Amino acid sequence: MKCSCPKCSALLPEDLSETPEKGMSGKCSECSGSYWIHRESFILRCYAVEGERYCCSCGEALGPSTYCPGCGALYPDYCVVNNKKPAQRAFEKKNFSLNLSLPGFSAKSAAPGRKQSLVSAGGRGGSSDLRRQLLMVGGGIALLAVIAVVALLYLRDRAESKFIKEYVVALYSLKAGTDQCVIKSALLASGSRLVEKDLDQLKFVDDKITSALQVLSPPEKFIIVQDRLLKLSSTYKKLYRLCTTSGPSAEVTLSAKTLESQFNAQAKELKGVLPSPLLAELIDKSSRYKNLQFMLD
Predict the structure, then answer these.
(1) How much is the pTM?
(2) How many domains does the chain have?
């Protein structure tokens, strides 16, 4: 394994294949500096934290490639080495507390003697007390309504932000899977059979796509883009089955090209209905991950 200390670049005695996803800390034997190392799936590269990335299989530095230059693994899981533990990407849970006290309705004020005093007073004092209590009740109800609206808006915004990030990951995965299937179909068209390594690569990306799609839970305003994404997924699945069930044949390329053209046409339709927050996220991430550029060309 070749992962290096982020402070002095000395080799670290870490077995990257055993690194947990939640991460762990360590101390460099050369400079005595502390470091943090954690494991991530390749699909999360479009949201990667700062730090050098190393292939979990052989320890080679990955750089911007979609495959490991050391062992040749396609879309490999990797480990990230940082000076310190990075901030969590997951949304933090927020706790809401509400402590309202409405004067005028205590056990003491509800006593029979007090009620009789208010009724018998009949003057300005009793009337003003009752009016004040009603105003307090109305104010309390209005405050509760405002808090409820703010809470609903916060939860809605959080759900939309979460969906946008997960949607970009799903698009990234579908494009990666489609490109990989096109490459494998060219091998079949040349007369070569797909070996176990080729099928494992296709299955690996397909599993990542399935996971990315399963977590999507679209808010109402994103229903249309969710439907268009499912169309892209359906076309990709046809291409995946074509590659995994076909033998060597020149006709495979023609079928694959037809499905790739259908995928690109559906992507063009999707671009026409992208909401501005989702488009902004794609633009932001495509500057680093060129695989998303197909949604912006």
Answers:
(1) 0.56
(2) 2
Q: Can you tell me the distance from the alpha carbon of 37 to that of 23, in angstroms, rounded to the nearest whole number?
A: 5
Q: Which of 82, 117, 138 is the last residue of a domain?
A: 82
Please report whether residue 36 resides in a domain: yes
For helices 124-189 and 276-286, the axis angle rounded to 10 degrees is 50
Residue 245 is assigned to a structural domain of this protein: yes
Predicted confidence (pLDDT) per residue in 44-99, tens digit: 666 655 677 788 878 788 777 677 877 877 777 888 888 787 765 543 344 434 34
Q: 69 and 155: one domain?
A: no
Beta strand 34-40 with 52-55 is unpaired
Parent domain of 44: 16-82
Q: Are 198 and 180 in contact (CB under 8 A)?
A: no
Report pLDDT digits (tens) over 235-284: 999 999 999 998 898 889 899 999 999 999 999 999 999 999 999 999 99
- Locate all alpha helices (DSSP H) within the chain, ordered by sequence: 112-121, 124-189, 196-214, 223-245, 251-271, 276-286
